[in-house]
Automatic annotation (TrEMBL):
Organism: Streptomyces gilvifuscus
Segments forming domain N-acetyltransferase: 19-170
Pfam families (alphabetical): Acetyltransf_3
The protein, known as: GNAT family N-acetyltransferase
Matching Gene3D superfamilies: 3.40.630.30
């Protein structure tokens, strides 16, 4: 399938009963920086990001296409992020996500990934939608499997065993 221009493909925001997913705003940058440097968040993502890389990301993340802050509607607290990258993996659209540890186990990641996957499936029918995680990341793997994702590939990347899941292409 041909590439889809991100400028017309990506939504301004998405909402769920508990969450608002919207482009990163300047006030969100400290939360994103914390996610990039938190050892627990980064345990299955190659470890904390180098300070120089964090500074570069801080300059580039506000309004970056495909990167959304996950914001709790009840109090406007930024909980994490979700990223959608068209054509990231051999023409497939990749979804990735991360939340701060204090927000794990409340269903926020599931709610956010479901919203993004449903939107992406409707916006670009027929495109493969995938997510990659380290094989050792059992929490992420359980989440993807709970969403109906199926294990499609195993490979080594960044020196670690990885698994690629294909998400369902019909809305839940």
């Amino acid at each position: 399938m041909p590439a889809t221009p991100q400028a017309t493909w990506w939504p301004r925001s998405l909402s769920t009963p508990r969450l608002h997913l919207r482009p990163v705003e300047p006030g969100d940058v400290p939360v994103h920086s914390r996610m990039w440097t938190d050892a627990e968040v980064r345990r299955h993502l190659g470890g904390p990001v180098d300070a120089e890389v964090v500074r570069a990301r801080e300059r580039l993340c506000v309004g970056a296409p495909g990167l959304l802050s996950i914001v709790r509607r009840a109090d406007d607290e930024v909980l994490g992020s979700v990223l959608v990258q068209p054509d990231a993996r051999d023409g497939r659209t990749e979804v990735s996500y991360q939340l701060l540890p204090e927000h794990w186990g409340h269903g926020y990641a599931r709610e956010a990934v479901t919203a993004v996957a449903d939107w992406a499936t409707a916006a670009a029918p027929g495109r493969d939608l995938v997510a990659v995680t380290q094989e050792a990341n059992t929490r992420s793997r359980r989440l993807l499997e709970a969403l109906g994702a199926t294990l499609a590939e195993r490979f080594v990347e960044f020196g670690r065993a990885q698994v690629l899941y294909r998400l369902p292409t019909s809305p839940r």
